[in-house]
Amino acid sequence: MGHWLTRGLVVRLIVFVAVVLVVATLSITPPGHEIHTSGATALRSQVVESYNTPLYATRQAQPSQSLDAIRCELWLLRNSSAAACSDRASLAAAYFPQLTQSPMTLYLPWSPCALTSSPSRGFNVEYRPSGRTIAIHCFAASPWLTIFETHNLGVVAEPQLALLLVPTQSIPAGQIDVVQDNWTELLLHDDNGYEVPLGTTTIA
């Protein structure tokens, strides 16, 4: 009788350990992965943060190939009652002074979806020629099993604006749209939210 009790205890212990290992494995957040759509061209973008002048916007600033135009619009967002922009030198000193005008580059004031270094989240940029659209894909991996779900309470800080630099060498001249979507990697499928328009501009 004692032999069978010991054997049953061992079996239950093995089952318990197996369940714990499965739950622990499913609770780990897997690495995120870039989003690539059929027929799209990957674009190697760069994010530049504004350290000297924190930027917040009540509306989306339009993308442009002119860095001066971007600085002017950002200044007008902070000085809405002004009839015209400040002088060029003052704007360059206040907004992204580390940057100079680059050829074949699109500048987009943007609230980054992934600035912190994390293997589970990030973003990538593509050009979709079928719709003449630059798509910013924000992606994040979610644990396949969530035991305790936490919610942030209180006031959430407004995200700061950065500048997204997108190369335009592979984009033919003409009007383009810029959109952002958000993807969450789940156990059986990827969940993508709706696209958010960020602006329209013309590539020269």
Report what the structure shows.
By secondary structure, the protein is of the alpha+beta class. The protein has one domain (30-143, 157-203). Helix content is 22%, strand content 29%. The strands form 2 sheets. Strands 1, 4, 5, 7, 8 and 9 form a 6-stranded mixed beta sheet that branches. Strands 2-6-3 form a 3-stranded antiparallel beta sheet, covered by helices on one side. The model is unreliable at 22-27 and 148-156 (pLDDT under 50).
- Count of distinct structural domains: 1
| Tertiary shape | globular
Derived from helix and strand composition plus strand pairing, the structural class reads alpha+beta
SSE string: HEEHHEEEEEEE
Low-pLDDT segments, ≥5 res: 22-27, 148-156
CA(first)-CA(last) distance: 87 Å
Largest sheet: 6 strands, mixed
Strand content: 25-35%
Proportion in helices: 10-25%
